[in-house]
Amino acid sequence: MDLYDKTKVGKKIADGGDRKVYMYDIDKVIKFSSLSFFSSKKLHIKYTHDYLVCKNYLGNYIVEKTDVSDRATGKSIEIQPFIQGEALQKKHTTNPRVISQLRDIVKALDKMKNDGISLIDLVGNIGMIKPCLSNIIVDPFGNLRIIDAVLLEGKTVRPLGIILEVLAPLILARQNYLLRQFSK
Predict the structure, then answer these.
(1) pTM of model > 0.85
(2) CB proximity list for 156: less than 8 A, separation 6 or greater
(3) Which residues contact 159 (CB under 8 A, 6 or more apart)?
(4) Is 37 among the domain residues?
């Protein structure tokens, strides 16, 4: 039994480290994990856990999701509202509303770190090559919305997670650099 309507899956709009993102219906996106077949249900459990942790620390900045994963195979599939806007860049921080929200996010990251929680990946793939935090979208109203709630830890999804564990310090260094640049 499918938990989503395959006829509503539209064009691909993004590739993440693991997920392929497609338009779904007219106002949503659907994310398919391309790696979940390697780790069976472990990756689905990680994504569910990470979302709940991020929601706890970052509240309404985290975009809501509906889990429509295939229970039989463990393939992770999520549906979210489509957030119109741009990835957060330095140019957006001239808006006092944006900078205030960014400071809230940085405070939440500090709390996560102080509580011993792995940090959320705000950089995303694009942010590793362009000066943006591609997992934070600035919507047309100046609201910051975090579209991917994945923690930078891979211990729970070994052996696949070893790659994330190796990359996490580089991703965090890039994220910290961009956060400092944007907060100036």
Answers:
(1) yes
(2) 42, 45, 46, 49
(3) none
(4) yes
CA distance 100 to 5: 39
Residue ranges making up the domain that contains 141:
6-183
DSSP state of 85: S
Q: Print pLDDT tens along the chain (184 aa).
A: 468 999 999 999 998 777 899 999 999 999 998 765 555 677 788 889 999 999 999 999 999 999 998 777 767 899 999 999 999 999 999 999 999 999 999 999 999 999 999 999 999 999 999 999 999 999 999 999 999 999 988 776 666 667 777 788 999 999 999 999 998 7
Q: How many domains does the chain have?
A: 1
Whether 33 maps to a domain, the answer reads yes
Rounded distance, CA 128 to CA 161, Å?
19
